[in-house]
Backbone:
């Protein structure tokens, strides 16, 4: 099987053996355009604050380069590959024509014609309006998202396009997740997966938000749901056909076979989200297993047999992680990005040196506590206009002090999420860690101490790509279900990190101060004002 993970800065492919999940070869392709945050490629058109775009050409280049390189590295013949699966960051969404052509290919100097990356937060005012109206109207879908939808998601970004670039909105015959768009390019068949539709597209109980609700936001927005569907939407009472996870989306076309070097007709799995496929890679698809995929941001996902309303969660979707269970999602908008910002912005020593100095300290020795909101707050406040805070600095504060405080702040944010779930009646029985930050043992130990619970660790450096390969194995018919495929091909080490009682007790005191800061700044009055002043000055 081949699994392809389309990340924030690069795409990676891995070749996996079907019967045991052994990773035989892999390759990475760095995106030529990376994250487009300041100006559009070629035209030099400037972007506003909190914008983050990507180029679809980078995604195609991953198929052209990383897939054949991974197959070659694995030493297998292309005709031995029986399936391919993919995953994407989400919500990464793009406007396209009815045949799937991205609008940025037609009008590259128009910012709103480009795909909006998950970390595009410029639609926060539009998300605020959606949330306010939904709360006033008592929309039944709102509690499924913890009481607020995010500016990162399809509806907020779509409303931003309508109101800031109505011509682009009018030309957008499709508003489609990159997770589904790449499957369209591989198979020639347009589809929508149940995962992104539920978590990012506000699809609940067989329908999108009503035309009446959307028209109340803006009359021109009334028909937005039709752009999300595949032509089978019918009326708003239902009729949308969503593809199940692990399902067969179609077969590799001749064009896509030419890109990848794989045989035409290979099974292509239904699209999925990077975090959600990782649960299968860690064999963590049972109720109560929370998987934290820790990289530039952290996404927390967990299957459960219970339906509950959890404040500030990113959503609960039936069959959203594995068929037959409710799938919960929460998250932190910036984690690894925070550490990278500190190192890159202040000319400090690199991550390894700062970690070496920080881990020598006793808990609380630096006298600091920070809020992990440098990319806004995804859970549990769902406000991307919040910003980071560091309290307690003096003339004696050193770079390693701040670095450690930032690491600890992200662990406190994770604890806030876990406690919110459990207070809402959704138990977290096992905390499983995946993603690039797993490579930092000190950071992992801090999390175990702050959370006061053991951390299990995924047994792969390529969790999403492995998870995509596992889904492809189901789509190709090698296994009857995701659960059975995960048991055979996924892997994790239970209790890889165990909390230290004395450090955990010390962290309880600091976590109490974190919560005080959380509650004080969480109303946004000061942080929103500072952001507004910044934006005015920049404009």
Residues:
């Amino acid at each position: 099987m081949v699994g392809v993970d389309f990340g924030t800065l690069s795409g990676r492919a891995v070749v996996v053996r079907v019967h045991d999940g052994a990773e035989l070869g892999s390759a990475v392709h760095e995106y030529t355009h990376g994250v487009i945050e300041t100006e559009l490629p070629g035209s030099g058109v400037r972007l506003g604050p909190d914008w983050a775009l990507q180029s679809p050409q980078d995604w195609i280049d991953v198929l052209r380069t990383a897939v054949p390189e991974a197959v070659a590295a694995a030493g297998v013949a292309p005709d031995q590959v029986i399936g391919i699966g993919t995953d994407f960051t989400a919500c990464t969404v793009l406007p396209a024509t009815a045949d799937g052509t991205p609008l940025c290919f037609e009008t590259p100097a128009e910012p709103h014609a480009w795909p909006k990356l998950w970390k595009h937060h410029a639609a926060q005012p539009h998300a605020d309006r959606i949330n306010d109206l939904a709360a006033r109207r008592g929309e039944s879908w709102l509690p499924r998202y913890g009481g607020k939808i995010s500016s990162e998601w399809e509806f907020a970004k779509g409303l931003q396009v309508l109101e800031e670039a109505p011509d682009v909105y009018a030309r957008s015959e499709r508003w489609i997740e990159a997770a589904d768009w790449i499957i369209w390019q591989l198979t020639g068949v347009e589809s929508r997966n149940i995962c992104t539709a539920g978590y990012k597209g506000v699809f609940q109980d067989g329908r999108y938000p009503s035309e009446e609700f959307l028209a109340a936001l803006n009359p021109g927005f009334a028909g937005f749901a039709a752009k999300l569907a595949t032509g089978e939407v019918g009326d708003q009472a239902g009729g949308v056909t969503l593809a199940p996870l692990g399902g067969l989306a179609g077969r590799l076309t001749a064009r896509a076979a030419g890109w990848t070097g794989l045989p035409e007709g290979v099974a292509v799995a239904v699209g999925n989200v990077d975090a959600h496929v990782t649960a299968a890679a860690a064999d963590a698809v049972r109720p109560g297993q929370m998987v934290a995929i820790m990289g530039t941001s952290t996404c927390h996902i967990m299957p459960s047999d219970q339906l509950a309303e959890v404040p500030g969660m990113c959503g609960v979707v039936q069959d959203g992680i594995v068929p037959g269970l409710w799938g919960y999602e929460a998250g932190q908008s910036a984690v690894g990005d925070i550490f990278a910002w500190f190192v890159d912005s202040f000319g400090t020593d690199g991550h390894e040196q700062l970690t070496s100095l920080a881990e020598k300290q006793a808990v609380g020795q630096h006298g600091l506590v920070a809020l992990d909101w440098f990319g806004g707050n995804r859970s549990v406040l769902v406000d991307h206009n919040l910003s980071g805070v560091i309290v307690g600095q003096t003339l004696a504060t050193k770079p390693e002090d701040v670095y450690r405080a930032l690491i600890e702040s992200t662990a406190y944010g994770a604890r806030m999420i876990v406690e919110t779930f459990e207070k809402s009646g959704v138990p977290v029985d096992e905390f499983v860690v995946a993603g690039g930050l797993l490579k930092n043992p000190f950071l992992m130990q801090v999390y175990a101490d702050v959370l006061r619970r053991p951390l299990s660790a995924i047994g792969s450096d390529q969790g999403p790509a492995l998870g995509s390969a596992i889904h492809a194995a189901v789509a190709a018919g090698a296994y009857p279900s995701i659960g059975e495929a995960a048991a055979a091909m996924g892997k994790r080490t239970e209790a890889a990190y165990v909390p230290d009682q004395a450090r955990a007790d010390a962290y309880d005191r600091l976590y109490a101060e974190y919560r005080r800061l959380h509650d004080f700044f969480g109303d946004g009055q000061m942080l929103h004002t500072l952001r507004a002043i910044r934006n005015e000055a920049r404009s």
Remarks:
- The CA atoms of residues 25 and 75 lie 8 Å apart.
